């Protein structure tokens, strides 16, 4: 999961904790920006998506 660290969700919720009850395998990271993360942090978004799609374990995991 990716979300904007500076947006409402990033400021008010522990995103991985909220979603951990809905997904057995969950990983994610907050990125700089608000609601439009791909537009506000394009290089970080690309790096995170590329890592996920390549199967790398570089994002922090809610399940440790």
Automatic annotation (TrEMBL):
This is Alpha/beta hydrolase. It comes from Marmoricola endophyticus.
């Amino acid at each position: 999961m990716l979300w904007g660290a500076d947006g409402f969700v990033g400021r008010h919720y522990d995103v991985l904790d909220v979603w951990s009850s809905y997904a057995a395998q969950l990983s994610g990271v907050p990125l700089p920006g608000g609601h439009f993360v791909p537009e506000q942090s394009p290089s970080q978004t690309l790096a995170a998506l590329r890592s996920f799609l390549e199967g790398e374990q570089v994002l922090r995991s809610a399940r440790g």
